[in-house]
Structure formats: structure tokens, C-alpha cells
Amino acid sequence: MKLTKTVDYGLRLILFLGQQTQLVSMPKVSETLNIPYNNLIKIVSKLSKAGLITTSQGKFGGIQLALPASDLNLLRVVEAIDGPIALLHCLDQNSNKVAPCTFICSCSLKGVFSTLQTQMKDYLGNVYVSDVGQFPKLEKEVSYVRN
Fold first, then answer.
1. Residue ranges of the domains in the chain?
2. 62: which strand partners?
3. N or C end of the chain, less CB within 10 A?
4. Entry pTM
């Protein structure tokens, strides 16, 4: 499982804006964070519609967080961009497009992934933009292979 590139960009954008004290222009954000400008426009639109950032047009316009970094958790950012987290299609309570699971009576995976999904949402819901800087930076990729 991995986050989409759009969510990755969105999280980086929000963290960057959390460190700013004034409006930041879209071209500056695109260049600083190395986010393609067209992708940035789409991300900003989603985050703005969700009320997480504010935008201001014009010569001195730009974007900024709509609320304090201490009030904005990572779950809100992820779900504003990609919608509710659903690790299995049968756990997506907001989708009317998915056919009901035919394995409901014999599938024990739902319990495993339902627990994981709940833990993931709880964790992301309790990590605020203002907290992220307190986490250690990983110098190398971490392997989680079980021996």
C-alpha cells in the first residue's frame, strides 16, 4: 500500500505552508517543492474546497493555510485529496459503484484490514501539521521484512 503521488504532493504543500507566515505564490511553491504546476493547481483546488487552505488572486496573491497548523491533522489532508481511506473495496462505505462483496460470510480479511484501516485513520487523525517536524528524519529506507 502506498499513498498516491497527489497525496504526497498535498502533504508536502501543507507542511510547507505550515512554516510560512504570509501568502506564498503558486509559482514559488511549485519551484520550491518541485511539484509540477498543473498538479499543484488541482491539489490547491481540492484543499481549498475542503477549507484547508485559502487562495488569493492577483499580483500579490497566493495561498496559505486556512487554519492553524496545530488544528490541521494529516487525515483531513489525505481525505481532502483522495477521499476517505478504504483499504479494501468492501470497506469503502462511501462508494455506490462497488458491488457488494460476495465473500462476506467466509472472508476473514475484512476484519484484518478493517482493524488496520481504523488504526491508520486514528493515527493520521492524531498527527497534526505542527507535530510533523518532531518526527525523526529517516536517513535511509527502512525495511520491514519479517525474518
1. 1-147
2. 56
3. C
4. 0.80
Its CATH architecture, for the domain 1-147, is Orthogonal Bundle (1.10)
DSSP annotation of 69 reads G
Give the Cα separation of 74 and 3 in Å (integer): 12
- Alpha-carbon distance of 113 to 132, in angstroms, equals 26
Rounded CA separation 3/78 (Å): 9
Half-sphere exposure of 105 (CA within 13 A, CB side): 1
One digit per residue, pLDDT tens: the chain, 147 residues? 678 999 999 999 999 999 999 999 999 999 999 999 999 999 999 999 999 999 998 888 899 999 999 999 999 999 999 988 877 666 666 655 555 666 665 667 777 878 888 899 999 999 999 998 776 666 665 554 544
